[in-house]
Amino acid sequence: MDEGIEGVQAPLWGPQPEQDAELEAVAAAILRQDLDGARFAGAIRRSIDMLLDGQHTGRFRWEQLYKTEKAHMGTLVEINLQREFGFGDGVDMDYRIAGVDVDCKFSQTPGGWMIPPEAVGHLLLVVWASDIKARWSAGLVRAAPGCLNTGGNRDAKTTLNRAGREAIRWLFREAPLKENMLLGLSPDDADSVFAQKSGQGRVDELFLRAQGKRVSRTVVATVAMQEDYMKRVRYNGGSRSRLQSRGIVILGHYTSHGDIARLLGLPVPQAGDSVSVRLVRRQAHNSDAPYIELNGEQWVRALPSDPEETVPKLPEI
Questions:
Q1: Any idea which architecture 21-176 has in CATH?
Q2: Domain 181-301, what architecture?
Q3: What's the longest Cα–Cα distance across the chain?
Q4: Which of 79, 206, 209, 222 is the most buried (most CB within 10 A)?
């Protein structure tokens, strides 16, 4: 499968339905704005993060949400896509795209989109996303009667039948979603992070236990649960200075830090990201390892068996 820009797949088209000029026009209008899906993926990521509201709640899993909160996910996706792309309000449906009314439907279950009676005959923008899988899909389909299951729930809503699911024109399918790295921590590591009583203590523990991983601003906010959460990362009292004596450096979105990450084989921090790693001085037993120079000395990534050493302050340029 062809790849788009970093972290986002190029469009994958599914089985072709009968030619639908309105559907084709809407597809073209969306792809003109977002051929690689980066903007679409960003809107979905923001929607999930807004619902979790980690900065104020410390939540990072879907299961931690109340039932009433989960019901609002579709609304947030609808709102954030409209903000991102500037879709006009529809006459009868959610959006007006390329002069066509389009209803936006989100589900965490593939094929689980609930379609109300008033949407029958209209175009649907169907969206699926999973935070655990870090994947999302979006496609277009017309809610024609022959594409819908008979019967429905008490609100007379129904779902796509097999023919309807096969008729979806996928704009993006199983594309990567920016990872919620807290979901990748082991239960023991996650428990240890959130067991710390202070926000600063939780951020320190995060960078000790999540070495070599990109840690986003959202993750820091979720762990710190404070208004000035990024202050907990910096030097002058944050994790960068508090963890120096343990050999931990925290790379950020500086040019020099990106160079260090590449030299040491670490993920390169993007805007708002932090990446921690423990370093030790280069010696005979680790002389073959990639190294960087700090204060005139050579430093390499530490092995678990290496004792902790105080590491110099990183340049911030």
A1: 3-Layer(aba) Sandwich (3.40)
A2: Orthogonal Bundle (1.10)
A3: 74
A4: 206
